[in-house]
Amino acid sequence: MATIELRKLVKSYGKTDVIHGIDLGIKDGEFVVLVGPSGCGKSTTLRMIAGLEEISGGEIRIGDQVVNDMDPKARNIAMVFQNYAIYPHMSVRQNIAFGLYTSKLPKAEKDKRVEEAGAILGLTPYLDRRPAALSGGQRQRVAIGRAMVRDPSAFLFDEPLSNLDAQLRAQMRIEIKRLHQRLGTTIVYVTHDQVEAMTMADRIVVMKDGHILQAGSPLELYESP
Ligand code: ADP
Ligand code: ADP
């Protein structure tokens, strides 16, 4: 588990600033949802935390370490994307195990982690099947499983449910929330869906034009004018 701290974080593309010095402290085990209109900088912020995007100014801390120049792999943070890459020629088990593809862990430990992730995500009956036999929600769970086996100290979710139909979205909201309660891992979750934010977040952070407009619990934001 890990705290994540953003201090005066800036991102520029050429001469254009898209993140204007944001400050945000995320507690160990907290479920923070970043919301805001398209283009406000949610995804860029997430990618900077993951180390997939260089920062232009300020500081990012994970735990007690400044990670500004740290390699993404050394950050021990797992990203779950909207367009999950699932390999059709591999079984569900192999797709999940791919998260440990370059890991030096012993095979027995890798196998154990894949079994555990499968069990937690309700995929045990499907482990030896091909992804073609899976529903959209199950595929999304495979993508989460691939991140889980890395035993990350935090999960970053970038619009993970936006490709799913309404019914599956509702189900996956509950499942991701339950997963968080079970693992207790810090989560930063990007969405433009108000319902996801209100039902899943410990704290909602509202962004606009590269700034943080407001932050608070769902109840606090709901009651604010
Ligand atoms: P959101 O995730 O909230 O929709 P983004 O973080 O994707 O927003 O984008 C924030 C801003 O940065 C937008 O104005 C977008 O056009 C701009 N942007 C994102 N990526 C690039 C890039 N590679 N080059 C230039 N501008 C970019
Ligand atoms: P490399 O990228 O050099 O192959 P990695 O160990 O970082 O080595 O990644 C191995 C595989 O694990 C990747 O190809 C990818 O499918 C998956 N993976 C890597 N990073 C993540 C992550 N943050 N979250 C989930 N899966 C990941």
Automatic annotation (TrEMBL):
Residues covered by the ABC transporter domain: 4-225
Keywords assigned by UniProt, alphabetized: ATP-binding, Nucleotide-binding, Transport
Recorded GO MF terms: ATP binding
Keyword Transport in annotation: yes
Highest taxon of source: Bacteria
Similarity-based family: Belongs to the ABC transporter superfamily.
Name assigned to this protein: Sn-glycerol-3-phosphate ABC transporter ATP-binding protein UgpC
Shown residues in whole-protein numbering: 1 to 225 of 345
